[in-house]
Write a structure and sequence with these properties.
The complex is a heterodimer of chains A (113) and B (109).
Chain A: E1 4-7, E2 10-13, E3 19-25, E4 31-37, E5 44-50, E6 53-56, E7 64-67, E8 73-78, E9 87-94, E10 103-104, E11 108-112
Parallel strand pairs in A: 2-11
Antiparallel strand pairs in A: 1-3, 3-8, 4-5, 4-9, 5-6, 7-8, 9-10, 9-11
Chain B: E1 3-6, E2 11-14, E3 19-21, E4 23-26, E5 32-38, E6 44-50, E7 56-59, E8 62-65, E9 75-77, E10 86-93, E11 97-99, E12 103-108
Classes of the chains: A mainly beta (113), B mainly beta (109).
């Protein structure tokens, strides 16, 4: 089945230790998104790629970076995680922007010790 | 800017009860409106959508009508099941998705 896959599902890191979260998709969608969802809150868009074009949200901290080496994969890098970065990180894809449906992965829950 | 306000939870219901979750929005232009559902431990799934005024989205017994005059997109289901227990998010989209805060629904047998 075509899908959005996130690995790992649970990630534990230490304060200040860089961490990378992974997302892959078999949908061949050209747009990939990363959202941060803190406990009992709505998902918040961090950035997205339209093909190779990176689009950062204005309020996304510099601590968060992303890479998209090819259509199928997208990575979220947190350079120096703080306790406030503990959250669920959701990857999503869509075919084009605008009104097209976004397909979400199951998320990676990040714990910062 | 665009924003979505939805009814706060948690909401606890008995099986076969009627469910309504209120959602109102503020937007410039004519956004598309969505309801997403998040089951425990899973990502978001699109439940239904409406792309213009007076459109009704429906899926799995859930319905919502895009009301431009009241800027609302309330979610309803006539008879809930235990399997409907989840968090429900209202969202609007112009160039990106803006979500409401989510409403946790628990259905008891």
């Amino acid at each position: 089945d075509a899908m959005v896959i996130q690995n790992p599902r649970y990630q534990v890191t230490q304060f200040g230790k860089p961490v990378t979260l992974s997302c892959s998709q078999t949908l061949n969608h050209n747009v990939m998104y990363w959202y941060q969802q803190k406990s009992s809150q709505a998902p918040k868009l961090l950035f997205h790629y339209y093909d190779k074009d990176f689009n950062n949200e204005a309020d996304t901290p510099d601590n968060f970076q992303s890479r998209r080496p090819n259509t199928s994969f997208c990575f979220l890098d947190i350079r120096s995680p703080g306790l406030g970065d503990a959250a669920m990180y959701l990857c999503a894809t869509s075919s084009g922007q605008g009104l097209n449906e976004q397909f979400f992965g199951p998320g990676t829950r990040l714990t910062v010790l | 800017g665009n924003s979505v306000t939805q009814m706060e939870g948690p909401v606890t219901l008995s099986e076969e009860a009627f469910l309504t979750i209120n959602c109102t929005y503020t937007a410039t232009g004519y956004p598309s409106l969505f309801w997403y559902v998040q089951y425990p431990g899973e990502g978001l799934q699109l439940l239904l959508k409406a792309t213009k005024a007076d459109d009704k989205g429906s899926n799995k017994g859930f319905e919502a009508t895009y009301r431009k005059e009241t800027t609302s997109f309330h979610l309803e289901k006539g008879s809930v099941q235990v399997s409907d227990s989840a968090v429900y998010f209202c969202a609007l989209r112009d160039y990106k998705l803006s979500f409401g805060a989510g409403t946790t629904v628990t259905v008891r047998a």
